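This week, think about what follows.
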Amino acid sequence: MSKVWFVTGSSRGLGRNFVEAALSRGDKVAATARNPKHLDDLVAVYGDNVLPLALDVTDKAAVFGGVRRAVEYFGRLDVIVNNAAYGLFGAVEELTEQQLRDQMETNLIGPIWVVQAALPHLREQGGGHIIQISSVGGLTVFPLGGGYVASKWALEGLSETLAQEVAAFGVKVTLVEPGSYATAGYATERAGGVTADPSPLYDGLRASFAEFATSLDLGDPAAAGRAILEIADADNPPLRVFFGIHGNQIVSQVYADRLKTWSDWQDLSARAHGHSPAAPAR
């Protein structure tokens, strides 16, 4: 039985590959983009199986209207993919208030509106699957990415909470955490991202990070498209899953370092609670 998808940020990047993978196997997709003309070629190939929707996820009324339109058109929704996002790049000291607010509006608040709009429909039909596109940067950090990783760390916490709240309704939640992919625009401001006005104080850091970024083994977006089908089809999907090779390489060491630091300072933790460390056995 084919599935019905609702995918935000469908015009390019991984979102485009998710949509193409679903359509190519006969699924139906409500594909959203700020400019739906970028989806015309999909309509030409897949016809009524794709519903192009103009949508800015920061517009709450438009999100609720778009979800309602998709349900009316297809009759149900099986898979919700919160993919629309962008990167804000710059040292924390360089970021403006408006840049930070805009980042959170798109990367965090937008997915909340989509979830709130979709959940009544998923609950009424007895189930569904919400897939939140996070990032390896939702579990670790990198310099000059403070605004972006803050939004993804927040999405991670929100989504894990959501998973506990909706499990009784038969709704599943998965956080997909991609590494770096060879998507259109990757080399130009990280696929449409926003860059803060640079301060010369961080020029050296910028240069070293740019050198690191160019050395990455970028993943194949089409492979990510095929992988999300496996997540959507899983009877017992994971709460979290990396897409690409970078996650396990990076995060394993990050978590080991965190556990060691907490262990090294556990006596202070106990004193902060009001307990004295246990006396050593004689």
